[in-house]
Amino acid sequence: MNRPAPLDRLTRLITFAARPHASYQAALFRIGLGGIAAAFLLREWPHRRLLWGDRSPWSAEMAARVIEEDHRFSVLLWSGGHWWFELVYHGAIVASVLLMLGWRTRATSVVFLVAVLSIESRNIYLGDAGDNAMRVMALYLAFTRCGAVWSLDARRRARARRQGKPVDDRAGVAMWQALGVLLLWVSDGFPHTAWAAVLWAFWAAYGVWYAAHRWAWGHQARDLLDAVTAMLHNCAMLVIAVQVCLIYGTAGWYKIQGALWQEGSGLHYALHLDYFMPWPALAGLLAHSMLVVFALSYGTVIVQAAFPFLLGYRRLKNVLLAAMMLEHLAIGVVLGIPFLSAMMIVSDAIFLPTSFLVLVGAHCSRLARRVLRRAQVNQSVRKHPPSGIGHAARG
């Protein structure tokens, strides 16, 4: 007797949900977030103590009051010393770079989350919309399997797979143990919040994941754990996509309600503000053309309001994504807000087709191998020059 059709559909749905999807999009998102955070922290490195450190006008006492009211946390407030701030700040840079490279992404994504929340919560009045998006997306990223491709983790797993052995991750185990000791030491630093429980849950899940892959190789328990983590990954990627749609949808419909963008004055005024004028000549050229201001204003409103509704149409979606990325690139250059623009471009990139990302990845791999091979050849020639060159030089 054949099974009823509803049961077949449920089985297919469970099978679909138990496989990780959008792995390349998650990897690109990981690389983008890590790169943006590292670039931002390096740019503000000369001013770090004035913005978030012991020289900041926003004192630690005022920051602690706001953090307690908003149920935030910041590890920077655990000590007011200069060296503690330097340790946290430079640790955030290291975590961002490691996340971008894909080194032990399950642990570094959580460390990256703690670093981002700590620095932004130290002085919440310095941020803009890009910082808000970074904070939210860093939380979602911690639940994804963002190191499945384009990462050092993926290369290590591929090497173990070719050898037919389980992954021997001694460095990951050492990192897991160190993070456990650190959590045990600082658990009292999360008063009135559930962040301590969340971080302990991440730590326990990381330990279970390693144990299953080390000692349950080929066992059903490992397959079950893979299915559960795949579902969490898929849910997190879905939430990221919904978050991006909410950002564009609310921005577009909010602009429709007012007269600033209907008359074009919203963009016109922004082009005349000194704060958004890194290139005065370029801003003045755009602002003096009413046709350009009109087209950009209405084009921005239409594209943002229509973004959530056009994602279901593949051809229109790809054109729309190209338009959105070009728009944010222009905003970053003309208005001088590169990190906000980069954050939105990275968020747009999660909707790119997998086939396109695979093609780009293969092209980048070939280019990297070609550059590496050429560098090796040049180094070999410098060490062992052809005999004819030496004879010609002596002659």
From TrEMBL:
Quote the PANTHER family the UniProt record gives.
Answer: HTTM DOMAIN-CONTAINING PROTEIN (PTHR39535:SF2), SPORULATION-DELAYING PROTEIN SDPB (PTHR39535)
Keyword Nucleotide-binding recorded: no
Using the record for this protein, list the coiled-coil segments as residue ranges, or answer none.
Answer: none
Question: Is-annotated flag, keyword Zinc-finger?
Answer: no
Which organism encodes this protein?
Streptomyces himastatinicus ATCC 53653
Protein name from the UniProt record: Putative membrane protein
Coarse class of the primary localization is membrane
Q: How does it sit in the membrane?
A: Multi-pass membrane protein
On the tree of life, the source organism's domain of life is Bacteria
Q: Which residues cross the membrane?
A: 21-42, 83-103, 110-127, 133-150, 171-187, 193-212, 224-251, 281-307, 319-339, 345-364
Question: Where is the HTTM-like domain positioned along the sequence?
Answer: 18-356
InterPro entries, A to Z: HTTM-like, Sporulation_signal_mat
Query: Would you name any one GO CC term?
Result: endomembrane system
Cell compartment(s), UniProt: Endomembrane system
